[in-house]
């Protein structure tokens, strides 16, 4: 693990600068809040992050409710809270899953790697056993589904952000952080209890004070993607 690589970089959300997405905004925004609970809300999508004793607490609908958050972590509509096990200036090992640009990344907690592997194996088993249901034409915002990612044509857990047109939705891939448009024919209704009750694994991080790189985008992505690094709250 290379601690120096991200020493001083700021996990988004932990300095109250977290990129967020909700049903009223389709690009990255800022937020301060998230509930430490399983959220059930119809017709809505949101992504929130909190820092213990720093961010505002919120209610079960993702709205600020006063006071300070009692735990650090990530919440997405209709999934349990993802606890981020850090204290003070401690480093936490993360794996870089998505490079958005020189400042913005999506990472996964390194210790949760086996869990992510188990989820992917379960999705593969469902696909091979004809345990997936396709044919549904309407999905609710915030609904957890399986969607096919254009990069490798594999199925992953996703949350519906919004409907683009009659046969296409914009989705957020819950465990990796990608967002893209997906055709209805590449979306499956999800009824598997394990996949519906496992917290989201995608955590956005934003570099503090970094705005450009001398590397080309291709070089930059190649260098950082899939690396395990240490980050700390700062």
Unreliable stretches covering 5 or more consecutive residues: 1-42
- Total helices: the number is 4
Shape: globular
Order of helices and strands: HEEEEEEEEEHEEEEEHEHE
Strand proportion: 35-45%
Tell me the domain tally: 2
Structural class: mainly beta
Largest beta-sheet details: 5 strands, antiparallel
Distance between the termini: 19 Å
Helix % is: 10-25%
Q: Quick check: average pLDDT? A: 78
Strands, count: 16
Strand order of the largest sheet: 13-12-11-10-14
- Tell me the radius of gyration: 17 Å
Pfam families: TUDOR
Protein name: Tudor domain-containing protein
Domain Tudor: 138-197
Biased composition (Basic and acidic residues): 19-31
How would you summarize this macromolecular structure in one to three sentences?
With 234 residues, the protein is mainly beta. It has helices at residues 3-6, 113-128, 193-196, 217-224; strands at residues 18-22, 25-31, 47-50, 56-58, 64-68, 73-76, 82-83, 91-99, 104-109, 144-148, 155-165, 168-173, 179-183, 187-189, 203-206, 228-232. A five-stranded antiparallel sheet has the order 13-12-11-10-14. Strands 15-9-8-16 form a four-stranded antiparallel sheet. Strands 3-6-7 form a three-stranded antiparallel sheet, with no helix packed on it.
Your description of this structure?
With 234 residues, this protein is mainly beta. The chain has two domains: 3-109 and 202-232, no CATH class; 115-196, SH3 type barrels, CATH 2.30.30.140. It has four helices and 16 strands. It has helices at 3-6, 113-128, 193-196, 217-224; strands at 18-22, 25-31, 47-50, 56-58, 64-68, 73-76, 82-83, 91-99, 104-109, 144-148, 155-165, 168-173, 179-183, 187-189, 203-206, 228-232. The protein has a five-stranded antiparallel β-sheet with strand order 13-12-11-10-14. A four-stranded antiparallel β-sheet has the order 15-9-8-16. The relative contact order is 0.23.
